[in-house]
Design goal:
Layout lengths: L1 H28 L2 H27 L14 H30 L8 H29 L4 H7 L3 H29 L4 H29 L6 H12 L4 E4 L3 E6 L2 E10 L5 H18 L5 E8 L3 H4 L1
Parallel strand pairs: 3-4
Antiparallel strand pairs: 1-3, 2-3
C-alpha cells in the first residue's frame, strides 16, 4: 500500500505543477490543444486525490456491516476516476476542439507552448518512472503486459495508464501547435484537441472495463483455480474437491471457498489438521488468498450408499 501511495503522490505533484503552467500559457497563446492539455492535467490531479480517498477508505477494518472489510472501496473509486477521465477529460477536450475548429484563432506565440510541453514531458515521465518501478518490483517474473492486465491494484495501473496517455497527449499537442503555426492552419490546433479527447476516452474505457470486473465480483483466473483444485485432490486424505469459488475483496486479498470430500475413516481431530494444512499449502503458493473457507464433507462407504 505504501508503494502504491508513493506512485499516486508523485503523479499528483507532477500534475499540479503542469496544470497550472499549461493554463497560464494557454491563456497567453490561445492554443486549444494547450488548454485541453491543461484540462487533462487538472483532471489527473483530481483523479489522484480520488485514488488516495479510495486507498484510505479501503484500509478500514472489518465491521459487523462489512465483515469482509472495505477493500472494494478501492475498486469503486477507481471506477469514478475512469468516469472522470471519460466525461471531464475526454468530453471537455473534444468540445474545446470542436469550438476551435468552428472559430479558429491564429497561434500568437508558440515558443512558450514548446517550453511547457517539454517541461510537462519531463514531469510526466518522472511520474511514470516512479509508477513503473513500483509495479516492476511487485510483478515478479511475469511479462509486463500480462502482469499489468492481471494486476488488481487500481492505484498502480491507473497511474500508469494516465501518465502514458499524458505523454502521448503531449506529443499530439506538440504536433498541433507546430502545424497550426508553421503551416498557418489554426484548425490543426483544434484537431489536436479532439484527438486528445479521443485518447482520454479510450483510456477511460479500458479503465472502466478493468474496474467493472472487480466491482461486480471478479475471481481468480480459471487456470489458478484448477491448480488449487489439483493441489487439494492430490492429498491422500481427500477423495474429491470441487472447483473453488473466489472473489477479490481487496487489491491484494482474495476470498476462496471450496467443497472438499474427505476419507470417511478420517478421525475428527485429524480432519481439522488436514483442513489447516490445506489452507497453509494454498497460502504458501498464493499469499493473497487470506480468507479460505473449506466445507468438509465425508464420503460415505459404498455399503452404506447401496
Amino acid at each position: 500500500m505504501a508503494e502504491s501511495k508513493l506512485a499516486v503522490y508523485a503523479a499528483i505533484a507532477a500534475n499540479v505543477a503542469i496544470a497550472v503552467t499549461k493554463f497560464i500559457v494557454a491563456g497567453f497563446t490561445g492554443s486549444s490543444a494547450m488548454l485541453s492539455e491543461g484540462i487533462h492535467s487538472a483532471v489527473d490531479t483530481c483523479n489522484g486525490a480520488l485514488l488516495l480517498v479510495g486507498m484510505r477508505l479501503s484500509a478500514r477494518p472489518a465491521t459487523i456491516e462489512h465483515p469482509l472489510g472495505h477493500g472494494k472501496e478501492m475498486y469503486f473509486w477507481s471506477l469514478i476516476v475512469a468516469v472522470m477521465i471519460f466525461g471531464v477529460g475526454g468530453g471537455v477536450s473534444f468540445y474545446e476542439g470542436i469550438v476551435h475548429l468552428r472559430n479558429p484563432e491564429p497561434m500568437r506565440d508558440p515558443f512558450w507552448n514548446y517550453v511547457v510541453l517539454g517541461a510537462a514531458a519531463v514531469f510526466e515521465g518522472a511520474s511514470l518512472l516512479v509508477a513503473l518501478r513500483q509495479f516492476n518490483s511487485s510483478k515478479g517474473s511475469r511479462p509486463f503486459w500480462r502482469a499489468l492486465h492481471a494486476s488488481k491494484d487500481p492505484s498502480t495501473y491507473t497511474v500508469i495508464a494516465e501518465d502514458s496517455a499524458a505523454l502521448i497527449g503531449l506529443v499530439i499537442a506538440a504536433f498541433g501547435v507546430w502545424g497550426s503555426h508553421a503551416l498557418d492552419m489554426p484548425e490543426l490546433d483544434g484537431v489536436a484537441s479532439i484527438l486528445i479527447g479521443v485518447l482520454l476516452a479510450l483510456v477511460a474505457v479500458v479503465l472502466m472495463r478493468e474496474s467493472r470486473g472487480l466491482v461486480i465480483g471478479e475471481g481468480i483466473r480459471s487456470e489458478t483455480a484448477q491448480r488449487i483444485r489439483e493441489l487439494v485432490r492430490a492429498r491422500g486424505s481427500v477423495r474429491e474437491a470441487s472447483m473453488p469459488l473466489s472473489m477479490y475483496i481487496g487489491s491484494n486479498e482474495v476470498l476462496l471457498v471450496m467443497d472438499v470430500q474427505f476419507d470417511p475413516e478420517l478421525p475428527v481431530g485429524r480432519l481439522t489438521e488436514e483442513i489447516d494444512s490445506i489452507e497453509q499449502s494454498i497460502r504458501a503458493l498464493y499469499p493473497q488468498m487470506r480468507r479460505i473457507y473449506i466445507e468438509a464433507r465425508a464420503t460415505l462407504p459404498v455399503s452404506l450408499v447401496g
